[in-house]
Amino acid sequence: MIGDYDSICGFSALGMDIFPVDDTEQARKKLRELDNDEYGIVYITEPLIENMPDEYERFKIKTVPAVIPIPSTTGSGGFALTTIRNYVKQAVGSDIIFGDGK
Amino acid sequence: MAQMRVNPTRMELTRLKKALQVARKGHKLLKDKRDELMRQFLEIVREAKTLRETVEERLAEANRSFTVANSVMQSEVLTSALMMPKQDVELKIGKKNIMSVNVPKYEISYKTKNKDDIYSYGYAFTSGDLDDAISILYDVLPDQLRLAELEKSIQLIASEIEKTRRRVNALEHVMIPDYVDTIQYITMKLDENERSNLSRLMKVKDMMLEEKRQKDKA
């Protein structure tokens, strides 16, 4: 888990490793660090991943690890859904799941 | 009309005809692959969408409880309460093959089986909201993993579909027409040669007949 402390500390109780970071730069560094075969899934809070689309792009084609956005304490910005929508567009050529424009 | 630069020979014609056949077969196969990928993809996307919505809702709920817990408890107490997790999760990553795309399959194993065991602290100094938050997080974890699996699959399949679609289009709109045009060109050229050869022969025959007639007259 990468994110601000408040958003992710709960997950530590479940035995997941948490890596609190304060800003995008730290998150970027952490994400690179975790890019080994040790972790299968990296959850990262939405505001952070939103600010580094280039990194996110890099993990797209890799099978491991999966970088998955989760909402932070401030709530969901809809980034993840937008991302899925973009994939649909990429694959199908038009947005047929979400329909009605938005 | 785009044709390849080839020598208009019979050998070339045979070669091209074979290539065209292969291209057509490949085109059909790729098209089937694309359609099947698309079907799987849409299924996964639909599931991912609903799952994503529920997971986000649950996480928001957990976060709300957490914020309340955070405000009634001292942050040091909260930190120390969560510092030593009893629970430990282990993630096993398998692979599933969907139309030659390897998508991950996650399997999780908990160290403690009992759900009541997940609280890593005594209840005396912590707020009940913290319990709520953690319980929700615990419940949502399997869904969260499934979501990770689905979203990764979506990423991988989407790029595979795009690749396949490009290939299908390249075959359909470039390679196959090119082959067809070139084959036609060679056939026409060969026919033309045939005709010119024929007329030459006729001309020669005429000349020979003429010669013979002259000789007979003499």
- Major sheet details of chain A: 2 strands, parallel
Q: How many DSSP helices of chain A?
A: 5
Query: Strand sequence of the main sheet of chain A, in spatial order?
Result: 1-2
Query: How would the global form of chain B be characterised?
Result: rod-shaped
Oligomer status: heterodimer
Mind summarizing the main beta sheet of chain B?
2 strands, antiparallel
Poorly predicted residue ranges of chain A: none
Overall strand count of chain A:
4
Average pLDDT of chain B: 80
Radius of gyration of CA atoms of chain A, rounded to a whole number: 14 Å
Q: Which secondary-structure class do the elements of chain B indicate? A: mainly alpha
Record the strand order, biggest sheet of chain B. Answer: 1-2
Helix content of chain A: 40-55%
Low-confidence stretches of chain B: none
Number of helices of chain B: 3
Most extensive interface, residues per chain? A-B, 37 and 60 residues
> In percent terms, what proportion of residues of chain B is strand?
5-15%
Radius of gyration of chain B: 37 Å
Distance between the termini of chain A: 30 Å
Layout: helices, strands, pairs:
The complex is a heterodimer of chains A (102) and B (218).
Chain A: E1 2-3, H1 5-12, E2 19-20, H2 24-33, E3 41-45, H3 46-50, H4 53-60, E4 66-70, H5 79-92
Parallel strand pairs in A: 1-2, 3-4
Chain B: H1 10-72, H2 75-83, E1 89-98, E2 101-110, H3 128-217
Antiparallel strand pairs in B: 1-2
